[in-house]
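Thread title: Can someone regenerate the structure for this chain?

I was given the following input by a collaborator and told the matching structure tokens would be attached. They weren't. Posting the sequence so someone can regenerate them.
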Amino acid sequence: MKKNINFFEKKIKRIQKQYFEYLKQKEQLKPKIETLKIIIVYIVFGFSWIILSDGILSLFVKDIDIYNKIQIYKGWFYIVITSILFYLIIYNKIDLFKKSLDTIHKGYEDLSATYEELTTMDEELNSRYEELQLVLEKLRQEKELSDSIIKNTYAVVVVLNKDGTIKRFNPFAERLTGYLENEVIGKKWLDIFIPEDKKDYTRELLKRIVNGEVVQNQENKILTKDGRIIDILWNNSVLKDSMGNIIGLVAIGIDITQMKLLVKKLKHLAYYDTLTGLPNANMFEKMVNEAINQNTDKNSKMALIYFDIDNFKYVNDILGHKAGDILLKKLAYIIKTNVHFPDFYGRMSGDGFAILLKDVSDENNIIKKVNELSEKLGISWNYNEHEYFITVSKGIALYPYDGKDYETLLKNAETAMYKAKESGKNSYKFYSKDMYDKTLKYIEMSDDLRKAIENKEFVLYYQPLIDLKTDKIVGVEALIRWYHPQKGFIPPLDFIPLAEELGYIDEIEEWIIETVCRQKREWEVKGFEQIKVSINISSTTLTKEGFISKFEKILNKCSIESCKLEIEITETALISDLQQAIEAINRLKKLGFSIALDDFGTGYSSLTYLNRLSIDSLKIDREFIRYIEDENRNERYIVQSIIKLAHDLKLRVIAEGIETYRQLELLKQKSCDIGQGYYFSKPVPSEEIEKMFTSN
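Best answer:
Regenerated them for you:
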């Protein structure tokens, strides 16, 4: 029950009044005096009655009998009179006593009621006090929490007065700016932290905030003590007094300097190549689209040139990706320094680059620029003390004839570039309509090759190797065939170069090795241990890291001895990097493999290879065997010289491509060791070659 202070003041005054009345009555109630008064009254009245009554009677009554009777009545009358007198005296005192008791009782009741009300109020006050204590504790905790947050938060917290003077400055703000709180308290925010060129704007902003405008997520720059500029994202709220008047503001800011740098970096990553620093495919597309949109002159032409490095895959596979990256950077530098505004360029992917030539007058003008660029890009490149000659193939699509949008132009320029590669590389081609069908065929073949690997559409055929002294089969060469579900057999020359270009050759050759090893093991179980199997290995696989270890695992898995296999490598496999090839061959030799140099005589440095390579056999290319019968040609003498040279070097000689009896006889005369060709047998499945083993 809620009671206001006036109520209790009235209660207290009333009780005080009753108490004063009681005190008055108490003053009137003096037991000894009052008792003495009654006795005195009684004595005075008694004596007066006796003296006066007897005197009066003796004056007026002479008769003794009457006198005696009157005396009796006088006694009774005296009793009545004294009784009335005592009654009045005692009644008066008792009434006064009663009033005192009533006053006491009333006061007691009022005091009891007030006590109850005070008790209730006390309980209510206690309850309110406890609630207040809880609120105070909560406020204390919240203050501690807010203080802790302000002190420990990784955000700038600044409290400003309405005039912009600093009232509070948290520890993070101290660490960020280099100023201590006691250095800035009472000073103007604008004077210390705002750069000169931003002061007018910030001053207006503060006015808007203190006038009640809500300003959120506001970016602003501040100065640190050491002169650095930091980007801060601010959120502000105003402080008000009890009357609702704005007295200041609280500003909370997050340091977004690093975030803005990161955004800038991410933007750079989104539009620029991290390796070369050139605009990437996204940026190049954006620039081409802008150039197309800005090209309002119908007579104005543009040329999109797409080019990549010829045989770049071998650079990565043989020299390693680090070397490939160095080469890409070198080419990027050449492009940057030789392509000038308004033309622009970009790295598209891998070793692919593109250039857009703007405002070209005619085809001759384009050819001139392409030739100038080709001279710069066709470089001699030194890496690890070896010199390599780098060439690029280029495809050109003209705007608007070959495409009116970026996608079409780029696609057609790529198509033209692939045509340039087919034409011998290190050249350029303008896009033409007939290229589309060939490109489509290339793409279709690429897709089919991928599916062939996944669906295991390859099979191995085997062609026998004949000892020309005994006419016995001493070995076979494993040759891959692709059986397409719809197109039937596809010859190796149609898909092996493509597999090398696309990077599928590793998977294919791994499958060949495993299949050969399983087949070899099966033949040994059947009793054909003496048959040696030759496997062709490309330069990519030969020098690839981990290839030899993987080969060893397959041998162990199939329980095949390495000496039962011969590895055939071509001269072209050695051209890319002779040193790496030599190291790989030496490792294979240590493991027990025989090594044959295939297609001998078609390369550039055959004698160098014979001198430096640890090989066991030399295979004369079929081009020499084809014309060996013609006495008017030099092939007969070249073959004879190769055989003699090989034998002098303790090498076994294998002639491939024998198709006639006369070729066979001439080779026997010249002491050739092994023969291979359609004269003996075309490549056949394993079942048929087994029949030949049996009849051998």
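The two ends are 124 Å apart (CA to CA).
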